[in-house]
Amino acid sequence: MRAPIGNFDEARPAPDCLDLLTPPVADAVRSWHGDVPAEQLLYVDTDPAIADTAVFVEHHGADLLDSSANCVVVAGKRGGESTLAACLVLSRTRVDVNGVVRKQLGARKASFAPMDLATGESAMEYGGITPIGLPADWPLLVDSAVVDTEWVLIGSGRRRGKLIVPGKVFAGLPGAVVLEGLGTG
């Protein structure tokens, strides 16, 4: 099957590639019940050595710059309590951690979670964290521009491989809150 974006050798339905996904991502795909059929979640094999956005786009197609999204883990702190959340923004933008995220989490301070905490709590690899399969109790803050993008390239839970998903899927994921202006300039 041909991928709807990028120039990948092959795209396969994610339910056919469960062994290539981390356990939480595979479990989420296995038990999928979103408005979009699980077969529309596509897996593409990628080389982790070219995972950097600029190199990746050069290799797999310039159209990916406008249709790739990054999922980052943030920690919001207030009164000794810490809340982990994930943020999904288009790759050409940055997460507004000190504005939109802090306000949404009701935190006094918000920052990117340390790598070992983000990977340990998500059970995903650094550079491959994806909104599909995150812990159910985490808020998932999604920039509205991601939801409005027809097809979005995201991580697969591992550094090797990516998922291509209809943007509207993200609004229906567990804990999802769609926000204007989460991704900035």
UniProtKB/TrEMBL annotation:
Top-level taxonomic group: Bacteria
Protein name: YbaK/EbsC family protein
Naturally occurring in which organism (per UniProt): Streptomyces pratisoli
